[in-house]
Every structure is written in C-alpha cells, then in structure tokens.
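Hey team,

Filing this mostly as a record. A colleague (T.K.) asked me to run one chain through the structure pipeline before their review meeting, and I want the input and output archived in the tracker in case anyone asks later how it was produced. No errors, nothing strange. Just documentation.

Input sequence:
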Amino acid sequence: MDFIELLNRYEVKYIIVGGYAVAFHGYPRYTGDLEIWIKNSDINAERIISVLEEFGVNIPDLKKEDLTKDEPMTGLYFGKEPYKIDIIAALDGLTFDECYSNSVTIFINKIEIRYLSFDDLKKNKKLTGRLKD
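Output structure:
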C-alpha cells in the first residue's frame, strides 16, 4: 500500500493489471508480483522515477526513456516474490487512456487504487494466450 500511496501522491497515472486485477474481479489465483501499468509519457516517467527514489529503489542508470517504450510488457521490476513489483509501459491490445477511463477505483484506508476494468482485463487476457489466464 505504501507504493500505491506514493503513486497517488506524485500523481502517477497508473492501473493495477495482471493477477491482482484478476483477483479483484473475483477470480483469485496466486501471483508473485504486483503489475502496475503506467501511462507512457515523459511526465509520468519522471514521476515514477521520483516515486522509486522515495520508496528506496535504486536502479542505476534508469532513464525516463526506459519507461516510455511502446512495447508490450516492457518496463522494470524490483523486489522478490511475493513482494515483487513490475512497472509496465504497454500492454497487448489495449490503450492506456481508454483503459484509464474504464478503470475501477476503490479506496482502502483512504488510499485510492485503480484496477483494470473487467472488460479490458478479459480483452487483454484473450490476447496473451496463456493457459493460467
């Protein structure tokens, strides 16, 4: 929750995707990481770098260009399972702005959390073609 709180404080545009989004929509399954899809923009990349610094994550030579590649599942990760966090810059078959508009927002202990909508999640999972999805 601390990391999500920092994302909100720095006004990072993000959506929780992957296994946590699957579980949120009522289909619990094991996941070893928290996947966070960030808007692919220079300002958002600068903000996420500030979040990482404040969170105590040291990634040598990290540049905002590393977080703005428009290639599915590119980005960075840190930590170890089950506390691993993946920062993703793009997802197959989805556009961030549309998914952000469709996303579901909840509050836990006054912390805003955005999840990928069920329809967008289904669309993405169909495109990945992985059996566990």
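Quick notes for T.K.: DSSP finds five helices and six strands in the chain. Residues 77 and 86 are 4 Å apart (CA to CA).
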